[in-house]
Amino acid sequence: MKSAQSQPIYDVIISGAGPVGLFLAGELALAGCSVLVLEKAPAAPSPFKQLPFGARGLNAPSVAALYRRGLLPELEVAKRLAFPQAAPAAGPGPRPQGGGHFAGIQLQVDKIDYAQWPYRLPSATPNQLLIEMAELEAVLARRAQALGVLITYELGITDFQQTADEVAVQAGGHAFRGKWLVGCDGSRSVVRKLGGFETAGTEPEFTGYSTQIELVDPEKIKLGRQVTPTGMYMQPQPGYLILQYFDGGAFHQAQMPVTREHLQALLRRISGTDVTIGALHQASTWTDRARQATAYRRGRVLLAGDAAHIHSPLGGQGLNLGLGDALNLGWKLAATIRGNAPAGLLDTYEVEQHPLGVRVLDWSRAQVALMRPTPAARALYAIVGDLLDTPDGATYFAGRLWGLATQYPLGGGHPLVGRSVPNFELADGTTIGEHLRDGRGILLDFEAEANLQTLARGYSRLHYVAGPAQEQLGLRAALIRPDGLVAWATDRAPDYDALRQAAARWFAEQHE
């Protein structure tokens, strides 16, 4: 093994080249950090990262994040499979045909009260997009590499040691040095295990199966999602099958190969038919194990994505939560590396993201509770189905599924603080999302006040955007973090003391 001391030292080493690791790498490189990504898998994508099993729904915050970094136009599959834009409160528009589900109960989008989200503008990005994982990873990898990130495949981390100043990493007989190490290496994270991170949560109730098959008699089972007294099967399209069987996760934990005979017996038991599987081409298993790291940082080692929170893929919340981790962490870690982060900035990563992980894990558990093959669960399933069929119920579940109800507790009296900034369309034709592409924060001033411009000059990584917008939602000014969250807002004459406090909390002063 080559000596670590002979190697260059990277600002950040990331374990894992999935969407979370690649998005984080791009965020760090955008802020001027040197980044190395180590991935144990080969560069070619797994068949399960391509449609239909590779199809994932991005929620509104994730779609907005990709748009604010100029990446949305590159997602060709998303252009073909996009859920049509849901009409915001500001005006009429087409309603989406998709929308998501809760425990298999389809969201009734025509019952949603869009007026409950007054900050959704006509220029807002879609509430949901359907994307292909393989394409998303390719887009994020291209962006990271264009910004100078080094990505290495078939080279997974096997060990690391950290000191007060850096982390020495071993991978495939090679040694690397980084000032920081971030584990984005999935639910079986090596970084989490080697780093001694503790997790807490619940153990699985079922084994899930994702398979590519050929049926001899496909007419015997239905297309779509079917919940039965013995489990669940879903045929998203002919040739592909997803199963859930409530065995306490035993089959998955045994790490046994999925055979055609085993899968056929299981499908017959769940579907109540004598359907025959002629051939099994691909199969993987998963569970509803729901556990979360009790801390997201230990010294110079951090966790993000599935490495920090493990749960079933029900409802498709994991990818969105992981991308949110990367967006939240990237600019804060970069400021810490540059040495101009306000006191405690990096600590706010865990403070803000850990509670969201708790909510998503509970969201997953609640769905499992409704899908159990018991009379009590079937009764609850029917009641929740009735609630989803009401305007209040549909609106509540849409707010959770689409991420529109998310609000970080950042303090401040304005209801927009802690929410994703609306995509204001300015008089010069630009949008606020376009102004966020360089990864810096914004002081947005609709009234073009000289005092606000002077204040903005006093902070690094903060630029001043002035002028009216087509729709200002009653606002006069707003402070926007690099991740697109509103940190301060006012609809009257600015309180400069409150603004300075907010700016000092998130941005370093220029003389530092």
Can you give keywords for this protein?
31% helix, 4 domains, single chain, 8-stranded mixed beta sheet, alpha+beta, 24 strands, Alpha-Beta Plaits, 5-stranded antiparallel beta sheet, FAD/NAD(P)-binding domain, 512 residues
Describe the structure.
Mean pLDDT is 91; it is low at 82-97. The protein folds into four domains: 11-73 and 129-197 and 292-371, FAD/NAD(P)-binding domain, CATH 3.50.50; 83-125 and 372-406, no CATH class; 207-287, Alpha-Beta Plaits (2-Layer Sandwich); 432-506, Glutaredoxin. The chain is of the alpha+beta class and 512 residues long. The protein starts with 8 loop residues before the first strand and ends in a 6-residue tail after the last helix. Strands 1, 2, 7, 8, 9, 10, 18 and 19 form an eight-stranded mixed beta sheet that branches. A hairpin with a 4-residue loop joins strand 8 and strand 9. Helix content is 31%, strand content 23%.
